[in-house]
Amino acid sequence: MITKVYKINRDNIDTDKLKEAAAILQTGGLVAFPTETVYGLGADAMNPDASRKIYAAKGRPSDNPLIVHISKWEDLEKIARDISGKAKKLADAFWPGPLTMILNKKDQVPKETTGGLNTVAVRMPKDEIALRLIEESGCLIAAPSANTSGRPSPTLAEHVLKDLNGRIPLILDGGEVGIGIESTIIDLTEEIPVILRPGRITNEFLKKVVGAIPIVRGIFSKVSGVKPKAPGMKYRHYAPKAGLVLVEGEEENVIAKINALTEELQKHEKKVGIIGTDETVSRYLGDYVISIGARKDEEGIARHLYRILRDFDELGVEMIYSESFSSQGIGQAIMNRLLKAAGHQILEV
């Protein structure tokens, strides 16, 4: 299969290219497209065979549910039941945007899309290309991140092509995404809502609309032996090819520990990459030291995270050491992704 890449200008979207992408979706095919969070790999959510193609292209475990992307409130009413007042308030406040809600599904939603569950994950993206594609296709689009399963999520069309070239027919290239980490996921099927995956919509934002929402237990630890209710809960995700270890503690201790670990590996001719910040990169000794941004700019850190992990793959490093980050606000989402990428390998110093 030849994978075509179409560059799309958000200010002047090419209708013919969009119609071609829509036709692929309508006939059960796959299209990668940008959202404000990461690039998604889309298929008709109501077509079981199309959803199966997503799992096959990504190499994704079939019990890992997909998120259904919609373009209007009426779409939600077609696929979800027991829609609560809180769900309506959250949609009014944060849709279109990087918030996914898990609700009880209606019977017509295929279990191939929901990972075998009786619930469905839904969001309305803000990206204009994504919204126009949903509307043009007439499909509700199931779309996990457009990468090989377990790899860092794609924030550029080039990342999608690197992972899925020859596996899908078309990539819509809308340039770099704005947020760089996946949506916040809230489970609204229980009496007390819980956050299953932190993201750009933090608890501080949610609290203003529906009150504080607790984070599911174990979000920063390994989860095994359970059927995941949301993407990213059970399996190792976002991982570079090299090993990744987080180092947590006071700044001076973290720098000293990472440098000591690096020197030890370099004695054995191992190439080491280090993820630091603007404040610390000049003090590290790695073969490749990359700043993820300034600590005061957590939105920038989130936006750069996956690109940096992929950059280290291109550099051929064999081990990556990273500083840790705040567990508050967006930092919570950053740490969640880094811990998943590291397989929860963290050193406290």
Keywords:
349 residues; alpha/beta; DHBP synthase; Rossmann fold; 2 domains; 11-stranded mixed beta sheet; 16 strands; globular
Residues in β-strands, percent: 15-25%
> How many strand elements?
16
Order of helices and strands: EHEEHEHEHEEHEHEEEHEHEEHEHE
Rg of Cα set:
20 Å
Q: What is the percent of helical residues?
A: 25-40%
- The overall pLDDT average reads 94
The major pleated sheet works out as: 11 strands, mixed
User: Which fold name corresponds to the CATH topology of the largest domain?
Assistant: DHBP synthase
What this model shows, in words?
It is built from 10 helices and 16 strands. The protein is α/β, with parallel strands linked by helices and 349 residues long. It has 2 domains: 4-184, DHBP synthase (Alpha-Beta Complex), CATH 3.90.870.10; 243-348, Rossmann fold (3-Layer(aba) Sandwich). The strands form 2 sheets. Strands 1, 2, 3, 4, 5, 6, 7, 8, 9, 10 and 11 form an 11-stranded mixed beta sheet that branches. Strands 14-13-15-12-16 form a 5-stranded parallel beta sheet, with helices on both faces. β10 and β11 (194-197) form a beta hairpin.
